[in-house]
Backbone:
């Protein structure tokens, strides 16, 4: 009899590098210690993982590196509670547990041949990063790619090491915005939904992928609707408190759907079919 | 698979001793006003006169269990290099639960499709479930809060049991329901039961006829979804609730759980504990946002899970065995029967109003 895998048992992993992105966001690049497990590891853009800080607990984060770059798995962690605070104390060489991949993924196959607009707010850029880099690494499969990334201030903008490249690429139309004017800021100023209306992406043959704080999502959805995007052209990925990550512990459900297995990625059309409990 | 044997009342103690020699035997015992399951002790009476206050859920799904153990340290060759060892802690050991009622045993058949089927399985649950046998006592009388027949069960339901005991004159007829059960009744203390066939039949008839007619709950799954957004209804119907969670802990079908790490020095463990969906923290997100901010939202989810979402995922079965423990033990008088019936009535009248508009 083959031994059944224990869905709660993490892989041991080592942090190989960290990046202090902002005052409260830290990126961790990790490798699973067992070389065979690391070599066999595969995932799809949008899938999440549970990171363990042993002695404190586990929390869920999207794998924000793309599956096309498997040197390490990257997680960006905003310090908010006990587990994230403990994770922020860790550095290269430290051990963590990884349970991944979990959940569903972005519909990157059915997005082939389409234009894509990414609209990310704050730490909500993390799940978009994996899909955007996957698309840039498979550039010929996708049409025009547009990125609108906003944060409260320049100091709150994660992935700053990558921003110059994103802004300078010919095959990516990137716009950055902050909420209020700051001396020295050379990019847009204004709330994400307003800047999105100014950019005015054409909904024809296009998908919009958005993630960010609830208030930003609410007004971004409105802006996308006003621009003519249909409900099934808008994709988002949800935040929920999760523990098991495999649909058993019973807290991330919306009606009969479990965000940890049926999500976290949903189209706006799918969300409208669910009971109203975001 | 059904073998029936007769167990004389006078042989009960000897049979329990025999069972206790083969496996860890767990029986209901009196503890003040409560009846609770605990290890069999020949010197302490087994309490069969009333249903246990808490169901036998904890025997297969403990309130707190260690899932894994970890040891942190440093590489002796290179002390700058942290080491971490992780080992899973798997339960083992045969158990026999004697004297649960049909509702308590049936609860596990609600857990089975969640924890023990599909691609993701809970190995801790499966190990205990496989190692545990249930010798269940049919109910001669139903209590005021009992409603097992509303949800497809009944006082002599054998679902989830390995042996069902039917009380008859001078003892019990022990019906072996499973192979595990057949092994348990294969004792020289149990004799031919043929002479009791009529008495068993009469018992089943009597307990079934004694039940009040059950309302049809077929419309419950749809109704609960139809009134999902009516927070006036949920606010009003949950107004008595004090969010204490007694209902969840005493429910044979509630299985929501949490993980917690505990450590001391370099040693630590990850625990799984029962969780309580009636608490505000249950769905509280790190950002501060809470999708179920009021007790109305939380009670809606609990009732919705049992009477709408679970049936939608598991072939129409309600995640409720009608034991009534949540009703009997609620300090505020919340009655899940009233909520389900009110939800159906409310959805019906709201539907009619909509038709008139």
Residues:
């Amino acid at each position: 009899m083959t031994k059944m895998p224990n869905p709660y048992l993490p892989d041991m992993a080592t942090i190989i590098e960290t990046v202090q992105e902002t005052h409260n966001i830290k990126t961790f690049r990790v490798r699973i210690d067992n070389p065979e497990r690391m070599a066999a590891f595969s995932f799809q853009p949008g899938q999440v993982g549970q990171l363990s800080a042993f002695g404190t607990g586990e929390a869920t984060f999207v794998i924000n590196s793309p599956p096309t770059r498997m040197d390490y798995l990257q997680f960006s962690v905003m310090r908010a509670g006990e587990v994230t605070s403990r994770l922020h104390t860790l550095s290269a060489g430290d051990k963590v547990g990884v349970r991944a991949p979990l959940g569903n993924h972005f519909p990157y196959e059915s997005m082939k041949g389409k234009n894509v607009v990414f609209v990310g707010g704050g730490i909500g850029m993390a799940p978009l990063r994996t899909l955007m880099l996957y698309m840039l690494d498979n550039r010929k499969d996708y049409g025009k790619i547009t990125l609108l990334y906003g944060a409260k201030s320049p100091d709150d903008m994660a992935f700053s090491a990558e921003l110059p490249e994103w802004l300078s690429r010919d095959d990516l139309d990137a716009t950055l915005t902050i909420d209020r004017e700051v001396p020295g800021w050379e990019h847009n100023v204004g709330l994400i939904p307003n800047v999105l209306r100014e950019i005015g992406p054409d909904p024809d043959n296009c998908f919009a992928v958005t993630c960010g704080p609830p208030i930003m999502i609410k007004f971004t959805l409105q802006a996308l609707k006003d621009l003519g995007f249909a409900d099934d052209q808008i994709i988002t990925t949800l935040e929920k408190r999760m523990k098991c990550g495999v649909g058993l512990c019973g807290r991330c459900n919306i009606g009969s759907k479990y965000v940890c297995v049926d999500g976290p990625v949903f189209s706006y059309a799918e969300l409208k079919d669910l009971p109203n409990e975001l | 698979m059904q073998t029936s044997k007769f167990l004389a009342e006078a042989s009960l103690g000897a049979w329990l001793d025999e069972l206790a020699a083969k496996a860890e035997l767990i029986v209901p015992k009196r503890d003040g006003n409560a009846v609770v399951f605990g290890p069999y002790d020949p010197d302490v009476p087994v309490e069969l006169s009333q249903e246990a206050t808490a169901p036998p859920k904890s025997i297969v799904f403990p309130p707190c269990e260690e899932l894994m153990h970890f040891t942190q340290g440093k590489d002796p060759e290179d002390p700058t290099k942290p080491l971490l060892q992780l080992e899973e802690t798997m339960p083992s050991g045969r158990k026999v639960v004697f004297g649960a009622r049909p509702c308590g045993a049936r609860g596990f058949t609600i857990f089975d499709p969640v924890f023990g089927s599909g691609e993701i399985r809970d190995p801790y649950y499966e190990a205990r479930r496989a190692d545990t046998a249930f010798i269940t006592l049919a109910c001669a009388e139903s209590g005021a809060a009992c409603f097992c027949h509303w949800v497809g069960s009944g006082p002599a339901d054998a679902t989830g049991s390995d042996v069902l005991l039917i009380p008859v004159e001078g003892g019990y007829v022990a019906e072996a329901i499973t192979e595990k059960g057949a092994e348990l009744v294969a004792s020289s203390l149990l004799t031919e039961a043929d002479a009791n066939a009529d008495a068993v039949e009469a018992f089943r008839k009597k307990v079934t006829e004694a039940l009040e007619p059950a309302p049809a709950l077929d419309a419950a799954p749809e109704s609960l979804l139809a009134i999902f957004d009516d927070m006036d209804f949920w606010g009003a119907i949950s107004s008595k609730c004090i969010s204490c969670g007694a209902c969840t802990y005493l429910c044979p079908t509630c299985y929501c759980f949490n993980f917690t790490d505990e450590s001391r020095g370099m040693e630590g463990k990850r625990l799984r504990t029962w969780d309580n969906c009636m608490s505000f923290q249950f769905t509280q997100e790190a950002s501060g946002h809470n999708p179920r901010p009021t007790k109305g939202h939380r009670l809606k989810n609990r009732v919705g899970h049992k009477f709408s979402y679970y049936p939608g995922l598991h072939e129409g079965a309600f995640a409720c065995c009608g034991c009534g423990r949540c009703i009997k033990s609620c300090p505020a008088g919340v009655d899940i029967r009233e909520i389900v019936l009110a939800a159906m009535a409310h959805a019906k009248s709201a539907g009619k109003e909509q038709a008139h508009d």
Q: What stands out?
A: Chain A touches chain B through 43 residues (CB under 8 Å).
